[in-house]
Amino acid sequence: MSATRDGLLVWPEGPVLLNRVPSDFAPELPLDRCTLVHGFAPELAAWSGYGVQTADEIGTDYAASLTALPRVRDHGRALIAMAMQATVPGGLVLIDGQKTDGIESLLKVLRPHLELEVVSKSHGKLLIARRPDQVPAPIAAWAGLKPAAPEGWHTALGGFSANAVDTGSELLARSLPTPAGKVCDLGAGWGYLAPAILAHPKVTSLDLVEAEKAALDAARLNVTDPKAQFHWTDARTFGPKRSFDMVVMNPPFHTGRAAEPDLGRAFIAAAAGLLRPKGQLVLVANRHLPYESDLAQRFAQVTPLVQEAGFKVIHARIPTRAA
Ligand SMILES: C[S@@+](CC[C@H](N)C(=O)[O-])C[C@H]1O[C@@H](n2cnc3c(N)ncnc32)[C@H](O)[C@@H]1O
Question: Would you say the CB of residue 168 lies under 6 angstroms from ligand 1?
Fold first, then answer.
């Protein structure tokens, strides 16, 4: 956010809301009076070294708010509406966004309603406005945006497969080897896989591990079986080690827009560490993702189960000591 670094922006006195702002903004912010609201657990962890105050809910009466535009349009709009409502009239409303996340089209939509100052950056823009006495009605309405969730499910705005069940997840649910004992769903999203797991009577517990708070909150609504437990945390550091009979996952393989198979590899490593000596991992992935060698390094037996519609389901058994 070069505008602040270059001294173009003077932060007003009083509390500042950081609305889903990544930790690499930290050096440019008045951290001692900031409150951070961020639903993504690894990002919260990245902030922990800065000693910034955090909150689960956005709150009210901020002298300024800074929203970092997320990738999904309606998610960004809902965040902006909430931040604007939370900022005092006359307070500073800042929106930072990349071109690839739609900052240009957002600017066009906001212009008729707000007096905006625009600071151009190499890959995006910082939009600066004063909060009007009344939040303009079309913007205020964004606070009520909801995803078009598949019938019978709750999902999370901006989250994975918010509007439709993922084809890979559906394939995984359909081809799951019979689970039993303690099962863990790593990167559980809004809980789509849970009914397919809990339908098996020999399952004694299901731990749903998910980094995105809104997705996990949706999972709590979708999965009411008392055998289910919910963990808002990073799957890569989740414990307890060597205690599960089965791990099931459709691992994430990108952060933002960039493909990052290392994330999937880290999930495989985490799964191997979570499993008991005779434990098993079942995962689905895009057919082109090269997970086989990681699986072979961490498990004694690796079997492809099914390949369909561009996805593959792989069954890996007996984690090796290297895990
Ligand atoms: C491909 S989706 C699968 C969701 C769900 N299991 C399904 O099949 O519909 C991967 C999920 O992993 C979550 N995720 C991403 N990074 C994570 C991390 N470090 N720890 C835990 N979950 C993470 C994402 O938010 C997303 O919900």
Answer: no
Same domain, 131 and 192: no
Tell me if 250 CB under 6 Å of ligand 1: yes
Mutate to test the pocket of ligand 1, among 250, 255, 267, 282 (most ligand atoms within 8 A of CB): 250
Residues 123, 171, single domain; the answer is no
Place of tokens 């008392």: 226
Do 32 and 128 belong to one domain? yes
Task: Evaluate the CA torsion angle 262, 268, 271, 277 in order and state its sign.
Answer: negative
The domain in which residue 226 lies consists of 167-319
Contact (Cβ atoms closer than 8 angstroms) between residue 318 and residue 278: yes
Q: Measured in angstroms, how far is the CA atom of residue 159 from the centroid of ligand 1?
A: 9
Examine the domain organization and report whether 239 and 187 are in the same domain: yes
Distance CA 9, CA 6 (A): 8
Q: Which residues of the chain have pLDDT under 50?
A: 1-5, 323
* One domain, residues 289 and 190: yes
Q: Considering the domain boundaries, does residue 57 fall inside one?
A: yes
Q: Which pTM value belongs to this model? A: 0.94
Q: Is 169 touching ligand 1 by the criterion CB < 6 Å?
A: yes
Measure 85 CA to ligand 1 centroid, in angstroms. Answer: 30
- Pocket flag, ligand 1, residue 253 (CB < 6 Å): no
* Number of separate domains in the chain: 2
How high is the pLDDT of residue 321? 64
Whether 226 and 119 map to the same domain: the answer is: no
Statement to judge: residues 184 and 53 lie in one domain:
no
Q: Is the CB of 39 under 6 A from ligand 1?
A: no
> Is there a domain that residue 244 lies in?
yes
Is it true that the peptide bond before 42 is cis, omega within 30 degrees of 0? no
- Please state, in angstroms and rounded to a whole number, the distance separating the CA atoms of residues 172 and 154: 20
User: Residue 255: what pLDDT?
Assistant: 63
